[in-house]
Automatic annotation (TrEMBL):
The lineage of its organism: Bacteria, Bacillati, Actinomycetota, Actinomycetes, Kitasatosporales. PROSITE patterns: SIRTUIN. The keyword Metal-binding applies. Residues 18-302 form the Deacetylase sirtuin-type domain. GO terms for molecular function: metal ion binding. This is NAD-dependent protein deacetylase.
Length: 302
């Protein structure tokens, strides 16, 4: 859902918090957490970047994909790159295996889960890496409107069905030559099991996106918001949501707070911390990286 908003904004939060520094910001966030009954965590790419998965990290890109690095590519943002299918699927397999299927706990996401604690909560995120579900958040409480790297879909699409990506990617990785960046066995390249056509990760890149697997979580989120007990105090904790896809997280969260009596917004964003002026003291701008801020909150809480 895209929400248009031309409301004047301000980057100055209540009590001059940016000038007061990180400890004061952490105290303010802890105060907001202590005051709320329900939490909606709303996360963008900045959260995963702070957790160690920065799509713009050229050094990590070179480590993972040296052949593409030698071609002059420097970033995981490759949707428009003119690569042959064997190199493109080599990229997707390595990238998704790294960012979606890692088994190690992520400290930042675990820290966020601990701070949410036993409060009634839900999550909405533009991230497609499943890091919430892999780090202690219940999967049925997490809405991923942009999709999930854990599934593939037909690009036509010939069907509304989607398929787990892991088996497809395992075949690609078994035939992947790291030195050339190519998949050496054409039979390992994924195709649609139904029509034999091209497949793609089940993420939103255009009107062909199949959202059927993700819509039920969105419906549950809408019901949760609508079923709030009388007088319940909602905190929208938005982390790392900028202007790449503002209609997915950033603007809808402002709209939600604006139209929910008593709701408050905390925006954690080092690059785009501004908040709507009309929300006044109901919106708190914290211009810090999520890892630094949550580390400090955890230290104060502990």
């Amino acid at each position: 859902m895209t929400v248009q908003n031309d409301t004047p904004r301000t980057a100055v939060p209540p009590a001059g918090l940016p000038a007061a520094g990180l400890p004061a910001a952490a105290e303010a966030l802890r105060g907001r957490l202590d005051e709320c009954d329900r939490i909606l965590v709303a996360a963008g790419a900045g959260l995963s970047a702070a957790a160690g998965y920065d799509y713009g990290d050229a050094e990590r890109f070179g480590e993972l994909l040296p052949a593409l690095h030698r071609l002059g590519l420097r970033s995981r943002y490759l949707l428009g790159a003119p690569l042959p299918a064997d190199m493109m699927w080599g990229y997707w397999a390595v990238h998704i295996d790294d960012i979606r299927f890692g088994t190690r706990p992520n400290p930042l996401y675990r820290r966020l889960r601990a701070l949410v604690g036993d409060r009634d909560h839900r999550v909405t995120t533009s991230n497609v890496d499943a890091l919430f579900a892999r780090n202690g958040f219940e999967p049925d409480r997490v809405f991923t409107p942009q999709g999930d790297y854990g599934r593939l879909q037909c690009t036509v699409p010939c069907t509304r069905e989607t398929w787990p990506s892991r088996p497809f990617l395992d075949r690609v990785l078994a035939a992947y030559d790291r030195d050339t960046g190519r998949v050496t066995d054409p039979a390992a390249l994924p195709v649609c099991p139904r029509c034999g056509g091209d497949v793609f990760p089940n993420v939103r890149v255009g009107p062909e996106f199949v959202d059927d697997a993700h819509r039920p979580a969105g419906d549950r989120l809408v019901r949760w918001l609508g079923d709030a007990p009388a007088g319940a105090r909602l905190l929208v904790l938005e982390i790392g949501a900028g202007f790449h896809t503002p209609g997915v997280i950033r603007l809808p969260m402002e709209h939600l707070v604006r139209h929910t009596p008593g709701a408050r917004l905390v925006r954690v964003n080092p690059d785009h911390p501004d908040v709507p002026a009309d929300l006044a003291d109901r919106a708190l701008s914290l211009p810090y990286r999520a890892d630094l801020l949550l580390d400090t909150v955890t230290a104060l809480t502990g």
